[in-house]
Amino acid sequence: MRFHGLRHRAATLCIAAALAACPATAKVISVSATTPDANEKLQEALILAEPGDTVQLGAGVWKLTDGLSLDVANVTVRGAGAGEGGSILDFTGQQGAGEGLLVTSDDVLLTEFAVLNTRGDGIKSKGADRIVYHKLRVEWTAGPRETNGAYGIYPVESSDVLIDSVFVRGASDAGIYVGQSKNIVVRDSVATENVAGIEIENSHDADVHDNVATKNTGGILVFDLPSLPMQGGHNVRVFENIVNDNSTPNFAPKGNIVASVPTGTGVLIMANRNVEVFDNVFDQNGTANVMIVGYRYEHKDPKYQPLPKAIVVRGNQHGKAGYAPKFAGGDMIAAAMGGAIPPVLWDGAGDAIVLDKVGVLSLNLPDVKTPQSEAKPAPADLSKGTPPAALPAIRLPDAMEAKVK
Amino acid sequence: MKRILAALAAALLCASGGAAFAPPGVDQALVESDAMPPKLSAFGLFRGNDPAQPATGIGYTLRAPLFSDYTDKHRFISIPAGKKARVAADGVIDFPVGTVLVKSFGWSDVNGGRPVETRLLIRRAAGWVALPYIWDADGKDATLALGGRRVSVSFKSPDGETHSIRYAVPNKNQCKECHSLSGEIVPIGPKARNFIPDPAASDKLRSLYFENPAALEPVMPQWDDPKAGSVADRARAYLDVNCAHCHNPAGSASNSGLFLRWTDDPAGVNYGIGKRPTAAGRGSGGMDFAIAPGDPGHSFLIYRLESTDPGIAMPEVGRSTVHKEGAALLRQWIAEMPKASH
Q: Which residues pair with A282 in a beta bridge?
């Protein structure tokens, strides 16, 4: 009779599901790091999760061989912490997939876990609107190596992106990279020993603030590149960051644009318009604290705009800079200027306003087609123009902010 | 009361996976439901559940198949009785709800030629669904593997080389990574430009399944038959099937700006000629361009095709070996391009 009752109950449940067709209440799907076939079980959990669910990663070191992916909207992936004793997704033995975790659905929260030593990118999200990266660690534990993966945290083609309180180390391209996206906040995070610490590329409406970018090749990059579906980067604010000691020799694989970033770069702005750099603390950036340049490579994109325009630099604190400029001829210019070039370096293309009370060195190359060998370096005064109206702060949907409260 | 009983019957059927009580032949109700049955046999797609014997439908091959570690693929389409597929003007085949594309993967020298896995692409009312099944050790049925799996196999490729690999059966999401257009699942191979219905199928059979079978006129050349087309055309057919499912403006690699469809301008920068790496990381191999005309050794498209390192290899999923013959064709194509003048 018990059996009969059970069967009856199961049938009732099934009928209820068949008739109601309303979503089940949010549930927590827990997966243990020590489960046999943990890789497959975790991937299954990520597939079977329904909107509203949380996939809870157990504490411990997960030895994973294949990349994970999530394609269900409004799911939280939560671990037991990103540090020692937390939930560590270790991809040292990775055999497949271009990243450790790929998210392709909207309204996802990733929090409290670490992704280590992926062969390609760490965590990528593509077309994943309103994604929140919170309290995560992505790290290549051997430190800077050309064989490390490219990007640590990598949202692309997304609207409303929040990256909050993450730690990224060792990326052979950019630690935190936001590409072809809009309405972006990167804050309270640490990027160290990457080629680029934080990079905003072919994107618009971004606030990058209260981060520490240290010991990278270049601390914070704002780039725009040709021949991509979304371009015309603009409206980016870089403020209240600590950008210091970006002295790691460039270890990016050649061919990639960041392979051209000179060691010792603080903030580098290339081919964007309306970028504000203010109230940051700069120190010990051997090439320059702030660099403003055009895109000087050959390209065949008639729609592309290679010049930096309406760049504003104000209210920053400048420590030591320019004492080891790692661009062609930089050492000679430094020697001629008494051992260091000024903290702000401009290639002479486009326009910028620098209100900081420090020197600016222009290479006087207004046309991006002119080779750098024809540079005529000279001090420049960029303090005279009228800055454009200040950009408004980025506001993300309240539901995103609520997730990190 | 009647309605409740009907629902109960449906519920019980769902609970049993439909297998036990299903009549012989395809369980069309199950195909068109939301179910993901744990056993492949539930669908009734094969006679006697023998993967070599489709219960219904029409077999097909492709002018250029997606390379999957030298597997032989056996493909057929099950279209529900009374419905037909229609070839649209742009060559996309519109399959009716209830269609199942069935692909079995194996090697002639593994398990006596029995498939290792069978992937289903099911056209349901809400869209296509991809389900991967791995054949059980006894070969009698196959089990759903939503999370994918690695299977150790050893086989010989056509050049006689032995490969011992951990073959990756893709997980459900990885199926979608390749079969994705604007975030929705779509078939890759069955487009008129690539599609060859079983030559043994009679005109009558073709007409049974296709509204306009005459429109099934493949325009892409057989990729590996030098008599079928120029090196460039065969290379483009290869790229269309092996790359363009992601590398198109609505695909998984849309952000790369590298678009490799048969219909894309093969002289354009977006086809890779003189295109610098985007988000390629180690995939650039220290090279400046995806395709350097006349110089395959400095074309990182080749570098990525010839790598099996997950941080470098393209495609990103579905390949644990290098497709030497495919790479050789693309090398020849690039080598024959006039070098760019600087």
A: A243, A318
Taking 50 as the pLDDT cut, the residues of chain B under it are 1-23, 342
Indicate whether this complex's ipTM tops 0.90. no
B163: enclosing H helix or E strand: strand B162-169
- What residues of chain A lie within 8 A of the CB of B11, using their CB? 11, 14-15, 17-18
The secondary structure of A362-389 as a DSSP string is E----STTS-GGG---EEE---SSPPPP
The Cα B27–Cα B21 span in angstroms is 10
Cis peptide leading into B315, omega within 30 of 0? yes
Map out the domains of chain B as residue ranges. 14-215, 231-335
- Give the pLDDT of residue B9: 42
pTM of the model: 0.88
CB atoms within 10 A of CB A299: 17
Taking residue A304's Cβ as centre, other Cβ atoms within 10 Å add up to 16
CA distance A290 to B158: 57
- Testing the interface with A: which of B282, B284, B288, B316 to mutate, by most A Cβ within 10 A? B282
For B77, which DSSP code? Answer: E
**Residues A370-394 pLDDT 10s:** 998 899 999 999 999 899 999 999 9
Q: Which residues of A115-128 are buried (b: 16+ CB within 10 A; e: fewer)?
A: bbbbbbbbbbbbbb
B chain contacts of residue A18, beta-carbon cutoff 8 Å: 7, 10-11, 14
